[in-house]
Design goal:
The protein is an alpha/beta fold. It folds into two domains: about 130 residues, Aspartate Aminotransferase, domain 1 (Alpha-Beta Complex); about 260 residues, Type I PLP-dependent aspartate aminotransferase-like (Major domain) (Aspartate Aminotransferase, domain 2, 3-Layer(aba) Sandwich). Helices cover about 40% and strands about 15% of the residues. The strands form five sheets. The protein has a seven-stranded mixed sheet with strand order 4-10-9-8-7-5-6, with helices on both faces. A four-stranded antiparallel sheet has the order 13-14-17-16, with helices on one face. The protein has a two-stranded antiparallel sheet with strand order 1-2. Helix 2 runs antiparallel to helix 10 and helix 11 packs parallel to helix 14. The longest helix is centred in the C-terminal third of the chain and has 22 residues. The chain is globular, with a radius of gyration of 22 Å.
Length: about 400
């Protein structure tokens, strides 16, 4: 089926920051995997809410509080629809993927796992899907098992079949790798877990901006993502979990709004999802996240994803043509990341030279040090794309890398 060409010029007009100059040069923003930029529609929605509607939510009897509550809960419904969740009551609003994963480890994990149990993760994980499981392993005595990756940056499924077994209680893995761009085989991993009665948690931080997500179709039990990857405000995100699981899990933070009543004889907790949402949240941020989802709903996402795929192909081929470039992560199924190392140039030096040319990339280990270890390198230069990038952006990147190669001889 033919895909309608994506109108990137029209879309770029929605993102004010893309008009900025860096050192006198037009900005080329290739760091969306760290934080995507926000369109005017999100900025305006958040500004309007703060200017006309802001108040604390759920507790006030006055009109502002009621209006703020309606706006906040409307965003929860949008997130549920965006993820294909059966109900908005399965959406726990968080500060991002990190908090969502910590919620699962500290609520489900601490109350469920024991010394005879195993949790399986992968070598591909962001630190946010490693450290929380290490903490719960220390707390419960459970064992952490790790699925290796191959030299293409793909999971070793044969190893996964051996690691996932009768002692496995949870399989937690990235839907899309932040360091490599690899799109993992969700259906195979979920099926392996289910065959042994284990649950699955997907880190969807890098997936939601680049692939259509339907938690029902994926078959997972938990799904986490961050708003700042999805063209929304930082400090926002969500955890989707199956209702029966969420109902069975104890609160992990105590405070206001997660209670029905408190006395020194004991406390009765609120219903799901509110029992996991202690304290005053980032109200205007969540409203902004709802606006980001509205914005995406107005785009032809199939065309947008095809446009991103073309950018990745163009960047990969053009960088390799320079010579002295090694692409880190060559999976057959990739999202919008091109990570590379350059002979004789440290990624931090490369990133600094690119910055002087107005090209913003990320240089480092990308909070995925085991990935770097598996490839025998300390860091990479990572160019990450969004639908607002152009082929000219890729050409600017390649020209800047060529300049770095000339500087280092």
């Amino acid at each position: 089926m033919m895909t309608t060409p994506f109108d990137v010029v029209a879309v770029r007009g929605d993102f004010p920051v893309l008009g900025r100059k860096i050192y006198g040069k037009d900005l080329v923003y290739l760091d969306s995997a760290a934080s995507a930029q926000k369109p005017s529609q999100v900025l305006d929605a958040q500004r309007a809410f703060d200017a006309t509607t802001y108040s604390n939510i759920h507790r006030g009897v006055h009109r502002l509080s009621q209006d703020a509550t309606v706006a906040y809960e409307a965003a929860r419904k949008k997130i549920a629809a965006f993820l294909g969740a059966p109900s908005e009551h399965e959406i726990v609003l968080t500060s991002g993927t990190t908090e969502a994963i910590n919620l699962v480890t500290q609520s489900w994990g601490r109350s469920t796992l024991g010394p005879d149990d195993e949790v399986v993760i992968t070598w591909m994980e962001h630190h946010s899907n490693i450290v929380p499981w290490q903490l719960v392993a220390e707390q419960t005595g459970c064992t952490l098992r790790v699925v290796p990756i191959d030299d293409r940056g793909e999971l070793d499924l044969d190893a996964a079949r051996k690691l996932i077994g009768p002692r496995t209680r949870m399989v937690a893995f990235a839907h899309v790798s932040n360091a490599l761009g690899t799109i993992n085989p969700v259906s195979e991993l979920v099926a392996l877990a289910k065959a042994h009665g284990a649950l699955t948690l997907l880190d969807g931080a890098q997936a939601v901006p680049h692939v259509k997500v339907d938690v029902a179709a994926l078959g997972c039990d938990f799904y986490a993502f961050s708003g700042h990857k999805l063209f929304g405000p930082s400090g926002t995100g969500a955890l989707w979990g199956r209702r029966k699981l969420l109902d069975s899990m104890p609160p992990w933070k105590g405070g206001g709004d997660m209670i029905l009543s408190v006395s020194f004889d004991g406390t009765r907790y609120n219903s799901v999802p509110h029992k996991f949402e202690a304290g005053t949240p980032n109200i205007s941020g969540i409203v902004g996240l709802g606006a980001a989802i509205d914005y995406l709903g107005g785009l032809d996402l199939d065309a947008a994803f095809a446009h991103e795929e073309a950018l990745v192909h163009h960047a990969t081929e053009s960088l390799l043509a320079l010579g002295k470039i090694r692409i880190i992560g060559t999976a057959k199924n990739k999202a919008s990341v091109v990570s590379f190392v350059t002979e004789g140039i440290h990624p931090h030096d490369m990133g600094t030279i690119l910055d002087q040319e107005g090209v913003a990339v990320r240089a480092g280990h990308h909070c995925a040090q085991p990935v770097m270890e598996s490839f025998g390198i300390p860091a990479t230069t990572r160019a990450s794309f969004a639908f607002y990038n152009t082929h000219d952006d890729v050409d600017r990147l390649v020209t800047a890398v060529r300049t770095a190669l000339e500087i280092f001889g």
